[in-house]
Design brief:
By secondary structure, the protein is an alpha/beta fold. It is built from nine helices and four strands, in the order H-E-H-E-H-E-H-E-H-H-H-H-H. A four-stranded parallel sheet has the order 2-1-3-4, sandwiched between helices. It is globular, with a radius of gyration of 18 Å. The model has no long low-confidence stretch (mean pLDDT 95). It binds zinc ion. The site of zinc ion has 6 residues, from helix 2.
Length: 256
């Protein structure tokens, strides 16, 4: 079933300038989605991470009625040097992404807002959004940074039948999310099960909190980390709903 269109009220770029001033005066909170335009296996679209982060933000914003929540236009590109071996990947330099976030956040602060949350959908950005949050925060303006899957670790473990709850890359959970959000962009027939890396040992390392940049040449020459064919639209819907719900719950506690 198609989702309802995103209401104008939550989209920063669709508001008029007086409405932005009113939202700031009402103690509004601002979300900045970040992600990547990068290869997601032979079967998923390049905007998988950015579109997921944006959708989670928009749905969370729509659930909060106590104060205004505005979603900025996403920063589409992320730090993806390790995927440049595949067509379509666009990567920023780490410094560029940090400075982009800092400049956008500084503009938001300039207009009187006191809280911003960077909501990320791409693993390679994780450390950078935290660095940017530290750099952009002041004593009057606090910036939070979170990757959506860290909000719902328990739910992911429960939903994932093959990938151990890891968000992976183009595996069970990301395939599920895209089957839910933009099924027309998915072609599961383009990837064979034997082309998917079983996360096994890698998931065990990451469950200890160790971040490992992918090395597709050694690990997964098809660039698929996790079992794509275990993905379903229904799991994807549950992931996105849980992430939006938990983000909305966090926003209520983070409100100034
Ligand atoms: Zn991804």
């Amino acid at each position: 079933m198609p989702d309802a269109p995103i209401p104008r009220q939550v989209l920063w770029q669709k508001r008029r300038r007086g409405e932005i001033r009113e939202a700031a005066e009402a103690g509004g909170l601002v979300l900045l989605p970040t992600g990547a335009i990068e290869q997601h296996g032979p079967h998923l679209p390049l905007d998988t991470d950015s579109f997921t982060a944006f959708t989670v933000c928009a749905r969370a914003a729509g659930q909060v009625s106590e104060f205004p929540v505005l979603v900025l236009p996403p920063i589409w590109w992320g730090l993806s040097p390790y995927w440049m071996v595949f067509p379509g990947t666009l990567t920023l330099r780490a410094e560029t992404l940090i400075e982009l976030i800092v400049d956008v956040a500084g503009s938001v602060a300039h207009h009187g807002f006191r809280r911003l949350v960077v909501v990320n959908g791409h693993g390679g950005n994780d450390g950078l959004i935290q660095a940017a949050a530290v750099k952009a925060s002041t004593d009057r303006f606090q910036v939070g940074a979170v990757s959506y899957w860290t909000l719902i670790a328990e739910e992911l473990r429960a939903l994932s039948t093959r990938d151990g709850g890891s968000i992976g890359h183009a595996g069970e959970l990301e395939t599920s999310i895209q089957l839910h959000l933009q099924p027309d962009c998915v072609d599961l027939g383009a990837v064979a099960p034997e082309q998917c890396l079983d996360l096994g040992a890698r998931a065990a390392v990451q469950s200890r909190g160790v971040y490992l940049p992918p090395n597709p040449r050694e690990e997964s020459p098809h660039g698929v980390y996790g079992m794509a064919h275990a993905g379903t639209a229904d799991k994807g819907r549950q992931v996105v709903e849980a992430a939006a719900r938990e983000l909305a719950a966090f926003l209520r506690t983070f409100h100034p």
